[in-house]
Amino acid sequence: MYVQNAQAPARKTVTVPGLRAMKAEGKRIVMLTCYDFSFASQMEMAGIDVVLVGDSLGMVVQGQSSTLPVTLDHMVYHTAAVARGLKSTLLVTDLPFMSDRDVPHALEAGARIVGEGGAAMVKIEGAAPHILEIIQALDERVIPVCAHLGLTPQSVHKFGGFRIQGRDQDAADRVVAEAKAVEAAGAQLLVLEGVPSSLGKRVTDAVSIPVIGIGAGPDCDGQVLVLHDMLGVTPGKRPKFSKDFLAGRDSVAAAFAAYAEDVRNGAFPAPEHCFN
């Protein structure tokens, strides 16, 4: 029988307002995806600030070719498992594909993820008019929202694959405008994925909410990676914006600690992890 004996060091609980304070103070935010209790417990002990139960579980846990087959039941199940491993770390969970098709469905999904799963915040992709309406509705019902712009995986078919976004001037300007729009609608955190580093800086400077980059350059307020990518266990080619933090280290705990240190001191992402 497995028994979780290790205790995480005592620290102040990470809160949604606390993330904004971290941005104001210039403290980089450390975020990782997670899908189960054991890894969540290790992240808690490593002092990770934010854990994201991403619909990326469809690809790295279930073996799907995209995030689209992931259901709300899957997200609630994995969120509850992760929540049991956390005490002071903030927990965010993705709204899965088509749970954001209208306000009633998004509110039901948000209520389940927070109420049943134990998340503190839900993440939603895009900035279309109906998404802005959903962000506002969730915010009005005291469900904090993390927006997700740039390369949004649920739009993989529309993009024609997992392609870098915002490379031309018009596209970059649109991402900046979308960032301002999701903030105005009530989003309190923003994940920015797969954009040139220069655009990552523009977006980070354009909004007062924290911006967490994944393939968005070194100037974001924090960084997030997919757990399996940063441990080097994802089958096939690892994304350019990722790094194997387990290589040369003797434990998962050491890999998490190294990742946290590199994000906080600005060593990660390095130029080789960024897009021009």
UniProtKB/TrEMBL annotation:
GO terms for biological process, alphabetical: methylation; pantothenate biosynthetic process
Lineage, highest ranks first: Bacteria, Pseudomonadati, Pseudomonadota, Gammaproteobacteria, Lysobacterales
Cofactor: Mg(2+)
Cross-referenced Pfam families: Pantoate_transf (PF02548)
Pathway: Cofactor biosynthesis; (R)-pantothenate biosynthesis; (R)-pantoate from 3-methyl-2-oxobutanoate: step 1/2
Catalytic reactions on record: (6R)-5,10-methylene-5,6,7,8-tetrahydrofolate + 3-methyl-2-oxobutanoate + H2O = 2-dehydropantoate + (6S)-5,6,7,8-tetrahydrofolate
Gene Ontology CC entries for this record: cytoplasm
Descriptive protein name: 3-methyl-2-oxobutanoate hydroxymethyltransferase
Domain of life: Bacteria
Family: Belongs to the PanB family.
Residues binding 3-methyl-2-oxobutanoate, per UniProt: D55, S56, D94, K123
Assigned EC number: 2.1.2.11
Binding site residues for Mg(2+): D55, D94, E125
Oligomer status and interactors: Homodecamer; pentamer of dimers.
Coiled-coil portions: none
Cofactor note text: Binds 1 Mg(2+) ion per subunit.
Described function: Catalyzes the reversible reaction in which hydroxymethyl group from 5,10-methylenetetrahydrofolate is transferred onto alpha-ketoisovalerate to form ketopantoate.
Keywords annotated in UniProt: Cytoplasm, Magnesium, Metal-binding, Methyltransferase, Pantothenate biosynthesis, Transferase
Native source species: Dyella soli
Catalytic site positions: E193 (proton acceptor)
Subcellular location: Cytoplasm
Gene field: panB
An MF annotation (GO) of this entry: magnesium ion binding
PANTHER family listed in its UniProt record: 3-METHYL-2-OXOBUTANOATE HYDROXYMETHYLTRANSFERASE
InterPro entries: Pantoate_hydroxy_MeTrfase, Pyrv/PenolPyrv_kinase-like_dom, Pyrv_kinase-like_dom_sf
